[in-house]
């Protein structure tokens, strides 16, 4: 069951709400593995918003332990608040206390540290239409029962046209290693949360749960694809919150349908008990695993390249009157993308010319830097 999804490189996007409703949205997690606490504070946004959700700036956010200890989080900008190097007592309970810039105070419920079983495996399954990426997990103790996953994707892809030359002082110069614009890695983190429950099963086993479907012809699987999956054990209360949030936001304009109290989570207002805050604070350890899918590991009927975007290659003349060219070398500004050599009887008379959309993968969000984990 998928509950939330946002755009590439977005860490969190508050749900949309009807009318002029304005609620504080809290997204917080205490990671018992590395002793970090991350909190994102924003506000709910109207349906079909033209602008991004406004962050809550200048708030004072504190982590409180049930023994009376408290720790201040540091504001990082854009509504993000962080605490590092916390010594976590796995037997203790923790909660958030929030005081906004306009002196409104909120508090989460006390939560314990949930222990998460490791991911058993990530697998992919081919169909004639594409591939499914699936997760498998279990808990022999039967104490988990409620699971949550998030993932980030990285894939390698090619531009439609190869630019072999760059322009230096209006002259073509062959690109060196690391300067080619043909192959890039696009890394997207989709805040796509998937949840599942084994409460009604005899055994605490999640088997072949689909996280994503990638259709054939997608550039995600045109060279090499990778997914990093994180898994958490969550409480029944958090599972119910995410489940209800999904059901209400799937109906356009129905965040308050049937009752907002059914989806607000474990955050409450101390200043005004009737004021509604949306979100959840939880604590636990996360396990992660990475999957790679290579183009040549796909079955033959899925080894399909993305359809052409209709790139038309023009030309740049190196020798006057040798070709009918769009430009001559003397016209170049330095921003042009030259492809390969055009020769006549062994003499270079020009170069192919392409647009950034066709020859530069950065126009699609790609980056040159190879991730450390990439083989």
Plain-language structure description:
The protein is built from two helices and 27 strands. With 375 residues, it is mainly β. It folds into two domains: 2-115 and 235-287, no CATH class; 119-158 and 183-230 and 292-302. The strands form seven sheets. Strands 6, 7, 10, 11, 12 and 21 form a six-stranded antiparallel β-sheet that branches. It is elongated.
Average pLDDT score: 82
Query: The biggest beta sheet, please?
Result: 6 strands, antiparallel
Helix percentage range: under 10%
Number of domains: 2
What is the terminal-to-terminal distance? 32 Å
Helix/strand layout:
Elements: E1 2-4, E2 16-17, E3 24-31, E4 36-43, E5 45-46, E6 60-65, E7 70-72, E8 74-77, E9 80-83, E10 93-99, E11 105-108, E12 111-112, E13 119-127, E14 130-138, E15 146-158, E16 165-168, E17 171-174, E18 183-197, E19 205-215, E20 224-233, H1 236-250, E21 267-269, E22 277-284, E23 287-294, E24 314-317, E25 327-328, E26 337-344, E27 347-354, H2 356-359
């Amino acid at each position: 069951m998928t509950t939330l999804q946002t755009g590439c490189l977005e860490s969190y996007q508050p749900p949309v709400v009807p009318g002029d409703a304005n609620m504080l949205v809290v997204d917080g997690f205490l990671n018992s593995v590395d002793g970090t606490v991350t909190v994102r504070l924003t506000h709910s946004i109207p349906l079909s918003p033209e602008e991004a959700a406004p962050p809550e700036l200048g708030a004072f956010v504190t982590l409180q332990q049930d023994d009376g200890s408290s720790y201040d989080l540091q504001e990082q900008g854009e509504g993000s608040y962080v605490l590092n190097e916390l010594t976590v007592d796995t037997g203790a309970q923790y909660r958030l206390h929030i005081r906004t810039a306009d002196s409104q105070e909120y508090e989460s419920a006390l939560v314990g540290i949930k222990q998460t079983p490791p991911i058993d495996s990530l697998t992919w399954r081919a169909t004639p239409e594409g591939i499914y990426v699936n997760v498998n997990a279990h808990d022999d103790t039967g104490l988990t029962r409620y699971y949550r996953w998030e993932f980030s994707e990285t894939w390698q892809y090619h531009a439609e046209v190869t630019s072999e030359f760059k322009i230096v002082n209006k002259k073509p110069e062959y690109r060196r290693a690391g300067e080619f614009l043909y192959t890039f890695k696009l890394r997207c983190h989709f805040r796509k949360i998937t949840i599942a429950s084994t409460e009604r099963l005899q055994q605490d086993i999640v088997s072949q749960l689909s996280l994503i479907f990638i259709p054939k012809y997608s550039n995600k699987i045109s060279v090499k694809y990778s997914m990093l999956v994180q898994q958490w054990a969550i409480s029944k209360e958090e599972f119910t919150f995410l489940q209800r949030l999904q059901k209400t936001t799937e109906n356009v304009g129905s965040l308050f349908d049937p009752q907002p109290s059914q989806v607000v989570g474990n955050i409450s207002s101390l200043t005004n008990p009737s004021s509604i805050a949306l979100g959840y604070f939880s604590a636990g350890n996360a396990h992660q695993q990475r999957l790679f899918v290579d183009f040549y590991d796909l079955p033959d009927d899925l080894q399909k390249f993305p359809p052409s975007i209709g790139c038309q290659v023009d030309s740049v003349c190196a020798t006057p009157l040798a070709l009918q060219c769009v430009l001559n070398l003397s016209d170049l500004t330095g921003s042009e993308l030259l492809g390969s050599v055009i020769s006549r009887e062994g003499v270079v008379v020009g170069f192919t010319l392409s647009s950034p959309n066709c020859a530069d993968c950065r126009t699609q969000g790609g980056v040159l830097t190879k991730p450390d984990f990439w083989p």
